[in-house]
Amino acid sequence: MSEDKPPTPLEEMLTAPVRDAIDRSAYGSWRNIATEDAVSLSYGFPDPDLFPQTALEESFGDVLAEEGDDALQYGGGEYRESLRSFLIEQERERGIDFETHDLLVTNGATHAIDTVCRAFLDPGDTIIVEGPTFMGALGVFRNFGVDIISVPVDDDGMVVEQLATTLRDRRERGDEMPTLVYTIPDFHNPTGTTLSRERRGHLLELAEEFDFAILEDGAYSDLWIDEEAPPPLATMTDTDHVIRVGSFAKTLAPGVRMGWLTAPTRIQEAADTVAAGGTNTLTEAFVGHYCGSGRLQDSLPELRRVYGEKRDHMLAELDANMPADVDWTTPAGGFFIWVTLPDSVDADAMLQSAAEAGVTYLPGSLFYPGPAGDNELRLSFTYVKKPEITAGIEALAASIEQAR
Ligand SMILES: Cc1ncc(COP(=O)(O)O)c(C=O)c1O
């Protein structure tokens, strides 16, 4: 709670996880950083020039003209169904078996993650995440009163050997075993790394041995630059341990709030039962109209090209400007580069002066379930233009020199 005012009776009635979230000093502090004149390398936003605004307007108009009342009524019309068909076809092409699996459309991938948590997590359960991981998912997990453990990430994604050790140690000690392991195997947020094929196989073996669900987040899977990621975990096994979520946020537009999950049929049914409030059927309809015409798939090469150029530009600027004791990842896709500063530089503490010098980023500590990541930070290369990337990296390099 805010320190200057005592909590009101209503605030005191907030649940413990919510009070924790509000109290957490890191939570949201970065939102207050003055950013108006600074280049924002903070947000995982798509390049707005890539939004297919005219085509979406056309789809919206066509849906209303053709389906009128149905599109506006509970349940939606046929174009809504065409979204589901499109997604099933897309996921089938990735290798998901729809004899044994089914698909649920959700209001974005985060809603899909929340729905999976509702279906699986009891308070006091244990879950395992990559450290660092997507902070939106961490925020969801924290709402469920679970213990969150992290496993490190290196250039080949989650260090699955370390996960195996953690699992064996816990079993030996008689500790609670995890219900869920959350992973972003392709072009990870925030590190940009990709889980190797070998480690995918090992992770699946562990899921069988220790009986946990893998929650596979494929938000960036289509946004490869150099080459596609290895096959999704969900397609590498005929066991029932993987639930895969996807999103239109990065390939179409975050504003549509559309995502999905695929899971073994009875798990999909359980998720469908607990997903509250239904989805936005009108948006499903016009996104279905847009995707059904092939335009989403047709747009992907251009997205890959533009993001590839921006990534290369940011990498070149890092090379040209960063002090020798700063390291960073080289992502093969996605939106992010993860930077490791010298031990003596605290990315949280540096943020205000970096903003004044002309750049903002997200401090690494936001991406861990516990205290960690003080000398790390995330840069996004997708949202801003190339000259801004240059200015932003120059300002970052100057801030690091000043902070050390
Ligand atoms: C790994 C990951 N999953 C999911 C999302 C969000 O998806 P959505 O906007 O569909 O909830 C993001 C966005 O930053 C992400 O990085």
The quaternary structure here is single chain
CATH superfamily of the largest domain: Type I PLP-dependent aspartate aminotransferase-like (Major domain)
Strand order of the largest sheet: 2-9-8-7-6-3-4-5
The CATH architecture name of the largest domain reads: 3-Layer(aba) Sandwich
Biggest beta sheet summary: 8 strands, mixed
Give an overview of the whole structure:
There is one protein chain. The protein is an alpha/beta fold and 404 residues long. Strands 2-9-8-7-6-3-4-5 form an eight-stranded mixed beta sheet, sandwiched between helices. A four-stranded antiparallel beta sheet has the order 10-11-14-13. The chain has two domains: 9-51 and 298-403, Aspartate Aminotransferase, domain 1; 53-295, Type I PLP-dependent aspartate aminotransferase-like (Major domain) (Aspartate Aminotransferase, domain 2, 3-Layer(aba) Sandwich). The chain contains 13 helices and 14 strands. It has helices spanning 9-12, 16-23, 53-72, 78-94, 109-120, 135-142, 160-173, 197-210, 265-274, 281-292, 295-321, 347-357, 386-403, and strands spanning 39-40, 101-106, 126-131, 147-154, 157-158, 180-183, 213-217, 242-247, 259-264, 327-328, 336-340, 359-360, 362-363, 376-380. The two termini are 32 Å apart. The mean pLDDT is 94. The structure holds pyridoxal-5'-phosphate. Pyridoxal-5'-phosphate (PLP) is lined by residues 44, 108-110, 134, 136, 184, 189, 217, 219, 247, 249, 254, 259. This is 2-aminoadipate transaminase. Its cofactor is pyridoxal 5'-phosphate.
